[in-house]
Automatic annotation (TrEMBL):
Gene3D superfamilies, alphabetized: alpha/beta hydrolase
Membrane topology: Multi-pass membrane protein
Organism: Zostera marina (Eelgrass)
GO terms under cellular component: endoplasmic reticulum membrane; Golgi membrane
Boundaries of every BD-FAE-like domain copy: 152-360
Keywords, comma-separated and alphabetical: Endoplasmic reticulum, Golgi apparatus, Hydrolase, Membrane, Transmembrane, Transmembrane helix
Reaction it catalyzes: [protein]-C-terminal S-[(2E,6E)-farnesyl]-L-cysteine methyl ester + H2O = [protein]-C-terminal S-[(2E,6E)-farnesyl]-L-cysteine + methanol + H(+)
Region of interest (Disordered), residue spans: 37-63
Functional description taken from the UniProt entry: Catalyzes the demethylation of isoprenylcysteine methylesters.
Protein name: protein-S-isoprenylcysteine alpha-carbonyl methylesterase
Main location class: endoplasmic reticulum
EC number: 3.1.1.n2
Amino acid sequence: MQQNTDPLSVLPPALRLMPIETAVSTSSEDEARIRRMSVDGENNNQHRRRRYDSNPRFSPRHGVVSKPALSRHLSLRRDVEHAAAETYLVTHLAFKLLRYLGVGYRWLSKLFALTFYAVLLMPGFIQVGYYYFFSSHIKRSVVYGDQPRNRLDLYLPKNNDGLKPVVAFVTGGAWIIGYKAWGSLLGMQLAERDIIVACIDYRNFPQGTISDMIKDASQGISFICNNIIDYGGDPSRIYLMGQSAGAHIAACVLLDQAKKESEEKEIISWSVSQIKTYFGISGGYNIQSLVEHFHKRGLYRSLFLSIMEGEHSLQKFSPEVMVQCRSMKPMIPYLPQFVLFHGTGDHSIPSNASETFAAVLGKVGSKVKLVLYEDKTHTDLFLQDPLRGGKDKLFQDILASIHVDDPIALAEDANAPPQRRLVPEFMLQLAHKISPF
């Protein structure tokens, strides 16, 4: 081998970057230090092992902290740091949002109602929160994109035999307060029935507008379609679900993706054909017709139009309107089956939002099923009923749709024990009455 004749090759990289006069003028003391650094570098791994064994805090021999315990500690620390960063971000955005809202009577009254509502359901929230943070069957904050909110949570069944059906869930939150953890109760219950749930987080307003939300949700679905097999999911059995604002966003994503596929002009990272069924829970699909309703409910017109990128964009982001456009006709065959769930007692988004969307989908030739729940409110279906335990009708209907081609799973669902009650009945009844939704 040819000997290296570069006089600077004996120096460490940091000194090689110095001006030549500075490097050459290094004192004999510095040279000795450099030699010691070289020797230390050669024995670096051995030194770390000695330090690990000699430190009681980390040494298995001293029985203080084992490697698995240390791993769990570091994982929890990362989760806490991520939660702190998210809290800071949400707080910053909340103050920014207040500039849009002002301080009005409607918002103050809803804030007080929301506070009492949350207190009444707190026994259930604490139990679900404990499961969310400490269950080994949840993969929290899996990164799917490069934006701050591009994270998703994976709820994995305890039984890992065979590939499982997958639900990609887009949470609600009035396009303003959506968060992936809102799906933890649903994720916990479906995972108990051998179904993987992926709760997708996305940018809310004012961090992003509706286009950003659709883009984020689409990226999350793409990640699931292309990577869920690594977590035990079946790529051929993926179901897309959204609740409230999440149902609207998910429907927009489907139409946008179907349009791209029908035009064959863009390279796509996932296909609508990979989605077996769309589940919409308490969604609004004609934004044009809901502007004044939301304004009366406290989601003021000026704010809502900012979220939807102006009045001129309302048609573009109204799935019910878009599927009727002649230019969108070629995309209809690409759409999966739609199953729309809604409570007839819903005041936040009236049930006729799902009824008219179902009628339009049927008229244009898309497969659709409408399920209405008598006197159920916006939060009854998604919160109070699951927290009540027992046989939850919506939950049973979702399972029946997912397991429709699996008689063994259907039999297991029929014989499964009822869900455990998480909140006393009197508190649920009171929460139903004061709910601001």
